[in-house]
Amino acid sequence: MIDCKKAALLVEKKKYVKLPFFSVFGLKFHMSICKDCRHYENDSKAIDHLIKMVYDNSAKLSEEEKQKMIEKLQER
Please, which domain of life does this record's source organism belong to (predicted)? Predict the structure, then answer.
């Protein structure tokens, strides 16, 4: 059985590459018994979705709006 650290790595890795059969099987088994890793996967998907939304919508911002956002971030 895989541990939570390995499960988190596989959750992220499977977004970009096809996992080998035994990795998929191990991850599914781990997820079936580990509530925290299921939450991690859901949170990871939500973060990816939000980043994609920001990235897709950033092209719609004017240069002035982008500059204001940069200034606000630098103030913090």
Answer: Bacteria
